[in-house]
Design brief:
Blueprint (H helix, E strand, L loop, with lengths): L6 H8 L5 H26 L15 E2 L5 E2 L1 H19 L6 H19 L1 H6 L10 H18 L11 H5 L3 H23 L3 H7 L4 H8 L7 H6 L4 H29 L8 H11 L18
Helix pairs in contact: 3-4, 8-9, 8-10, 9-10, 12-13
Amino acid sequence: MRTDPGPHLAFLASIPESRLPLVCCLVAFILTFFITRTIVRYIRSHADSDAPRKWWQPRNISAGGGLHIHHVVIGVVLVMVSGITMVTIAVDGGVPEFTAASILFGIGAALVLDEFALILHLQDVYWAEDGRTSVDAVFVAVAVAGLLVLGFNPLSFFDVADWQEDPSWVTRTIVVVAAVATLALAVIVLLKGKVWTGLIGMFITPLLIIGAIRLSRPHAPWARWRYTKRPRRMHRALERERWLRRPVIQAKLWLQDAIAGMPKFPDDALVDQQLDREIHAAPAPGEPEPARQKAS
């Protein structure tokens, strides 16, 4: 006896395969919008409550110094990642329409990332020190796209095609465990404040292992959680940060003087002053971030 499929299954079966990604995109858009609105309303209705939050209760996402991470930041990152992914693997590069759409995506991505600091801080910090976040975001996007152009792939130490060629549970278990382990290492590296190591390490896995083992940067969340009660380790992290940042600061000051028309190697005192402004220890959990000195 043949059973009649439900109306929702019949609807899915009637969708052309070429339109399925668009349908999934639309469904994800609608569900995410309503779920986000529900969560935001819940957080707002409990904003004045002093009761301790349970682990499962929605709450605002905050970074160091009380910076509130709005969900638009997560949305921008997901759009950029998915866009680069589709440009990289979706269709044959010989399709002219897709190439034109890729150009428009690149233009739009550049315009959005140039104002990434505005999205993050929700205020015009384009020419302020916090505005450097936009430049960092652009450099990250260029680096990731460049690695993809050169043929590097995320999680490149294994080939996902093995999943299709060998459907055994052993192969699939190895692929899943390797992917989860790699992503866990990447999260640890990013929590240690090593953004470049974490991103490039997704393409060159040994960098993730090195970054996860080495000391955290002193202002990173990892140092905030693990080093604030271990002063010797925090001191080592601060000394290492100054040693690594010194040539970068020297190059930056030299470039600034060169642009001004008077290239000269910067004085050590000026370099130390800049290092003092940029490098600081993370406060203990629950304590506010120390006020930074403004650049002269």
